[in-house]
Design brief:
342 residues; alpha/beta; Leucine-rich repeat, LRR (right-handed beta-alpha superhelix); eight-stranded parallel sheet; 16 helices; 42% helix; F-box-like_dom_sf; F-box_dom; LRR_dom_sf; 4026_t:CDS:1
Length: 342
């Protein structure tokens, strides 16, 4: 058996191991080491903040001298304890937790003895690292997590993805989590332009503006329709405009297998024909939803879901007139959650 086939087999095995086990594998021999290291560096900005900081320091070693000078990190403070890297670590990255990466920038590059935190410089640093990921193989990117996790950063730090040079980071994505505290219209429009291969989508729609809520729901519906093969969808905190999202589901009728709706207001929503068309649905969870009617749910009562294995409903906000939905869940002979306040 060739060494290439052995490497493929080991990679298929190692991908199921936990981080401590991968570290052990990296110490076995020269064949196991690069395979384990590649997997360890897939998602450098998950886990603890100290890990994120150390990863940024190592990634900074791959910047050229002009880039280091441009963001002011070319002095001995950053590099005094770092050696030349053995592997091309940036080329291994397949997942970027963008919020965690931004959160790690301040403690790493804004040392209290050197200078104060500056958002403009921080933005320049973010751009430099994103450009590095593009140069090192942006086409390998598979997952991106966009969450607000640090003070000071707002929508402008996320709008940089509108720049065409980052298209190679967004185009191959198959998994996306979006949970930012600022209006999402701009970032969703950007993602719609560049992303059409998303298979797993989780989005938090909280917004204080009634007008923006409707616009965000419309933009989300457009994004859902633009995907080639959406498998799972989770929508949280949608205060209005649910009709747009439910109608868009019909465009994913053949691919959608899992749907989760949490804290969604279905006021003025028409019948759920879009959901009823998803005949390959396997999991369906609804929690804390409001303003549902029998008319909305009627298409589900008439539809066939031969692969549906799990239905969960949290009855915390269930009104007496909505008992028909509880009966439908029970009729599927599936699991549902009872009112925990009873």
């Amino acid at each position: 058996m060739s060494i290439f086939k052995i490497s493929d087999i080991l990679s298929d095995i190692f991908i199921n191991l936990e981080t401590p086990d991968l570290f052990s594998c990296a110490l076995v021999n020269n064949l196991w080491c690069p395979i384990a290291i590649r997997l360890l560096w897939r998602d450098p900005f998950s886990g603890r903040i100290r890990k994120h900081q150390q990863c940024l320091k190592i990634f900074s070693l791959f910047l050229d001298e002009d880039q280091r000078y441009a963001i002011g990190v070319s002095d001995i403070y950053l590099y005094c304890q770092l050696q030349n890297p053995i592997f091309d670590y940036p080329s291994f990255v397949t997942t970027i937790n963008y919020g965690n990466m931004m959160a790690a920038i301040e403690p790493v590059f804004f040392h209290p003895l050197r200078r104060e935190f500056d958002l403009s410089i921080a933005r320049a640093m973010i751009e430099v690292f994103l450009e590095m990921f593009v140069a090192k193989g942006g086409g390998r990117m598979r997952s991106m997590i966009l969450k607000s996790t640090i003070r000071g950063f707002r929508s402008t730090e996320y709008s940089i993805f509108a720049c065409p040079k980052y298209e190679s980071l967004l185009r191959p994505l198959t998994k996306l989590e979006l949970a930012v505290q600022f209006p999402k219209n701009e970032i969703v429009s950007i993602l719609t332009k560049y992303c059409n291969r998303i298979q797993h989508l989780e989005i938090w729609m909280s917004d204080s503006s009634p007008k923006r809520i409707i616009e965000s729901a419309e933009n989300l519906a457009t994004f859902i329709k633009s995907q080639q093969n959406l498998i799972s969808l989770k929508v949280v905190d949608l205060a209005n405009g649910a009709s747009h999202v439910m109608d868009a589901l019909s465009c994913q009728a053949n691919s959608l297998q899992a749907l989760e709706l949490v804290n969604v207001n279905f006021a003025a929503c028409p019948p759920w024909h879009g959901l009823a068309a998803c005949h390959n649905l396997q999991e369906f969870r609804i929690a804390y939803i409001t303003n549902i009617t029998r008319t909305m749910v009627q298409p589900l009562l008439e539809a066939e879901f031969p692969r549906l294995k799990k239905v969960k409903y949290d009855f915390l906000w269930l009104q007496s007139r909505d008992e028909f939905l509880k009966e439908w869940v029970a009729s599927r002979n599936n699991e549902y959650l009872k009112d925990t306040t009873a």
